[in-house]
């Protein structure tokens, strides 16, 4: 007689754990986008001012480069630091745009600047390090740093410096308790404010003097409405620069960006990228190399943002929304709504539900003062900006 094989028995109920490090805040702009798209699927006419995403398609040269590669050849991994020809092309961009010489060996091609931040933070900081960021500021910085066990120190930039962090503020924060790093962007999200060359030089010099690693987020370079932006590479060989093909180059979904690193950080970043992503996507790297030759289309996109910006600068004050900095760059206006509400979450929720205008609560960018502000993105179509203004005008009456 054979004994039947023991039957598999389900183990006692078990829920896989959730780590504490996963407990980061949500990125509200993306949550609003999901809600707005859901309402659209339900048949509502929604105008999108919530996301910093160019409405333009990627330039033709990008599409052609990707299509040409779809001829049956493998779409493979590349070197972890990126295709050598793309690294050379990015280095040349620094000479063309800023007159700065950058060795191609210092360039690392990443999966958007978002992927670049993870690499830079891991290469620069150990768990427990203290890194300062500005409020209002880009929310993902804090979330990535916290997930990596790095303490974020918030420098609350005052409205009277256009919410720009100065070298004196960095020095004061460092004097209170030692900082290991500083992460700033210019032009900034959500305010569009840009640092002058002198201010950026002072930040670089202060960081070098105090031994603070400086990461300069330059993803909105190219998108300026007056003076061009300056790169931290003009003032420091030790700054880490993060940049992206998402914004000026209209390639958000291609998930490609780059870092420029001090020499001694190149190999650590290469080793990290080998294991974290292997490489940035091959097709996106081909597209990125081609996009530098698409000046006319990129200029046309910039002209559209400039015209959208002009429409909002003209329309918002008449609605009682007259407290904001007019944005030197990027494609956002960060607008004080305190005349209408002290709860930006509720304000944006109602605005979406009642008039179909999607915008991002200031709370996403500033956890203490963002109750009184809303960020409007003017990266989208002119139709959306005009229609949003029309709807808001009667809603806010
Ligand atoms: C200031 C800033 N940095 C970085 C990013 C990330 O962009 P990406 O990962 O597409 O390069 C964004 C996106 O909105 C941003 O606003």
Automatic annotation (TrEMBL):
SUPFAM superfamilies listed in its UniProt record: PLP-dependent transferases
Molecular function, one GO term: transaminase activity
Keyword field contains Transferase: yes
Cofactor(s) essential for the protein: pyridoxal 5'-phosphate
A Pfam family matched in the record: Aminotran_1_2
Keyword terms: Aminotransferase, Pyridoxal phosphate, Transferase
InterPro entries: Aminotransferase_I/II_large (IPR004839), AspAT/PAT-like (IPR050596), PyrdxlP-dep_Trfase (IPR015424), PyrdxlP-dep_Trfase_major (IPR015421)
Protein's UniProt keywords contain Transferase: yes
EC number: 2.6.1.1
Reaction catalyzed: L-aspartate + 2-oxoglutarate = oxaloacetate + L-glutamate
Domain Aminotransferase class I/classII large: 45-387
Similarity remark: Belongs to the class-I pyridoxal-phosphate-dependent aminotransferase family.
PANTHER family (UniProt xref): AMINOTRANSFERASE (PTHR46383:SF2), ASPARTATE AMINOTRANSFERASE (PTHR46383)
Protein name per Swiss-Prot or TrEMBL: aspartate transaminase
Organism per entry: Methylocapsa polymorpha
């Amino acid at each position: 007689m054979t004994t039947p094989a023991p039957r598999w028995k389900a183990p006692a109920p078990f829920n896989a754990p959730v780590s504490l490090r996963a407990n980061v805040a949500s990125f509200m702009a993306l949550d609003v986008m999901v809600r707005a798209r859901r309402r659209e699927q339900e048949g509502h006419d929604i105008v999108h001012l919530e996301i910093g995403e160019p409405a333009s398609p990627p330039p033709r040269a990008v599409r052609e480069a990707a299509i040409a590669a779809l001829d049956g050849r493998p779409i493979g991994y590349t070197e972890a630091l990126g295709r050598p020809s793309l690294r050379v092309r990015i280095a040349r961009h620094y000479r063309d745009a800023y007159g700065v010489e950058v060795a191609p060996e210092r360039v690392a091609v990443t999966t958007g600047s978002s992927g670049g931040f993870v690499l830079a933070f891991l290469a620069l900081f150990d768990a427990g390090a203290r890194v300062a960021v500005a409020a209002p500021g880009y929310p993902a910085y804090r979330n990535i740093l916290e997930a990596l066990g790095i303490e974020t120190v918030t420098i609350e930039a005052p409205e009277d410096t256009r919410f720009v962090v100065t070298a004196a503020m960095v020095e004061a924060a460092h004097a209170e308790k030692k900082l290991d790093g500083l992460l700033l962007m210019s032009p900034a999200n959500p305010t569009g404010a840009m640092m002058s060359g002198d201010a950026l030089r002072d930040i670089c010099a202060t960081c070098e003097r105090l031994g603070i690693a400086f990461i300069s987020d330059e993803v909105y370079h190219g998108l300026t409405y007056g003076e061009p932006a300056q790169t931290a590479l003009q003032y420091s060989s030790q700054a880490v620069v993060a940049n992206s093909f998402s914004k000026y180059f209209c390639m958000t979904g291609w998930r490609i960006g780059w870092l420029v690193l001090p020499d001694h950080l190149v190999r650590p970043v290469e080793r990290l990228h080998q294991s974290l992503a292997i490489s940035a996507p091959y097709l996106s790297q081909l597209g990125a190399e081609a996009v530098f030759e698409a000046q006319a289309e990129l200029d046309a996109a910039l002209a559209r943002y400039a015209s959208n910006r002009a429409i909002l600068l003209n329309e918002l004050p008449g609605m009682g929304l007259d407290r904001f900095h007019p944005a030197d760059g990027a494609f956002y206006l960060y607008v004080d709504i305190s005349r209408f509400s002290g709860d930006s979450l509720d304000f944006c929720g109602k605005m979406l539900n009642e008039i179909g205008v999607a915008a991002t609560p200031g709370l996403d960018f500033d956890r203490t003062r963002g109750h009184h502000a809303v960020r409007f993105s003017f990266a989208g179509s002119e139709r959306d900006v005009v229609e949003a203004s029309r709807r808001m005008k009667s809603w806010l009456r």
